[in-house]
Design a protein that fits this description.
By secondary structure, this protein is α/β, with parallel strands linked by helices. It is about 30% helix and about 10% strand.
């Protein structure tokens, strides 16, 4: 009770609404009590533990993390008849395109190579800790039947991310001592799963990922399906619809950065969706963006995206006037944008209008890119990833259909799920589902 009171006081004082502290405390304590009871009653049904597997380069594909160490994955084997179904999830964690060795370079590949996002030397037998959108293992990745009723008993594979290129890099030789072998890493993982876990005989595979892993889903969906002939493969791309969109001040920052990494450093054009490349022979950089790639993907794709993705408000739109990892001239608008329940109350009217225009573009681009085989869940909320977070996965809904139930119905061919759930409100802060934090 003391902890609840302190926590609520902090949260509510930040919102300058001290009078609500008692109501917040009561609600939070009730929620915590229910959560503890649920944990105790479901403990006996806990899933099998996750196991870390480092992948040898037996197929001589040249698989390697940035620093040359071997790639790998975590696996939790399924149970019963569902064990032959696989969730294969691509970890997120941004990208690197700066080859300088400056310690302050926000996207320095050399800096990244000294972390678990660039080297398997830093991985431990325990999975990456929970709590951020690119870590394991909540939502659709959970082995808890209450938190993940449709997929808790599937075999779950968490593909560790250590190449900085959304599993697309195909540079044949090391560059400045680093390796850009994202596609080889993905293939090495698939090789190993086919050889050791009978992935090639799976009944169904969901190829999923969040953030940079969500982009990896778009850019590798047809490749994964081609590696598994005879297997039903569908994709769920969460928080990976990074738009080709000008900044608030009118610069083509995202296009410039993605082109630098995708085309020049990673040499990923050779692994891009071939139909996309054929349609854009003089602008192959477009195939690094989901909005241009999705119309060419043959594999069915379920798009999960926040209309006001906070990462994109910071990085793509640069609503405060400066890129991440650098000083922003007006760092007030997006202050605490990653916090649950954020609202743009500190934004100027021009910034707010720019944000709404970005949301309209997000809605329009997703709607235009979807094919009849695809579907989507796109709330008008400020959220980055949803399917790998328990509350959005289980409780968020649009048009009275929850994310987890709508995706499950679409996966199984349900006609009700054929219609994408795209929020028709301009901005839904303070109302469902955005308020369900």
């Amino acid at each position: 009770r003391i902890w609840c009171t302190k926590w609520c006081s902090i949260q509510i004082s930040c919102r300058q609404n001290i009078s609500a502290t008692m109501d917040c405390r009561a609600a939070l304590c009730s929620y915590m009590a229910a959560w503890v009871l649920l944990s105790l009653t479901t403990a006996s049904a806990a899933a099998s533990p996750l196991k870390l597997v480092l992948v040898p380069d037996d197929s001589h594909r040249g698989a390697a993390c940035l620093d040359g160490s071997p790639p790998g994955y975590f696996i939790r084997k399924g149970t019963g008849a569902a064990a032959t179904n696989f969730i294969i999830h691509a970890q997120g964690g941004g990208w690197c395109w700066d080859t300088e060795e400056r310690a302050d370079a926000g996207h320095s590949c050399h800096t990244r190579a000294q972390t678990g996002l660039g080297s398997s030397k830093f991985w431990t037998a325990d999975p990456p800790s929970t709590g951020t959108n690119w870590y394991c293992c909540n939502g659709i990745l959970s082995g808890n039947a209450t938190e993940n009723p449709h997929f808790f008993d599937w075999t779950m594979v968490f593909v560790n991310y250590c190449d900085g290129s959304s599993l697309t890099g195909n540079r044949s030789e090391a560059y400045n001592g680093l390796h850009y072998r994202g596609r080889a890493n993905l293939d090495a993982v698939l090789d190993h799963l086919i050889a050791t876990e009978s992935l090639g005989r799976a009944r169904q595979v969901v190829w999923t990922g969040g953030s940079a892993g969500g982009l990896a889903v778009y850019l590798n969906a047809d490749h994964v399906a081609a590696r598994l002939p005879g297997v039903s493969v569908k994709a769920l791309a969460d928080g990976g619809f990074f738009m080709d969109h000008r900044t608030f001040e009118g610069a083509d920052y995202a296009r410039q950065i993605y082109s630098t990494g995708f085309m020049d450093l990673w040499e990923s054009a050779s692994t891009a969706n071939r139909a996309c490349i054929a349609s854009n022979p003089t602008a192959m950089w477009k195939c690094a963006f989901a909005q241009y790639t999705l119309p060419h993907i043959a594999t069915p794709v379920y798009v999960v995206e926040g209309m006001y993705d906070p990462w994109q408000l910071e990085f793509t739109l640069q609503l405060d006037g400066g890129p991440p990892h650098g000083p922003a001239p007006h760092p007030i608008c997006l202050n605490n944008v990653w916090a649950a329940g954020w609202t743009p109350k500190n934004c100027t009217s021009a910034q707010f209008d720019g944000m709404l225009a970005f949301g309209r573009d997000m809605r329009g681009n997703i709607t235009a890119a979807l094919q009849p085989k695809d579907s989507a869940f796109v709330p008008a909320c400020a959220i980055h990833c949803q399917s790998i977070l328990t509350v959005p996965w289980m409780t968020w809904s649009l048009h009275n259909l929850s994310l987890h139930s709508h995706f499950s119905a679409w996966l199984r061919g349900g006609t009700a799920a054929a219609t994408p759930l795209i929020d028709d409100r301009e901005y839904a802060a303070g109302s469902s589902p955005c308020s369900e934090t």
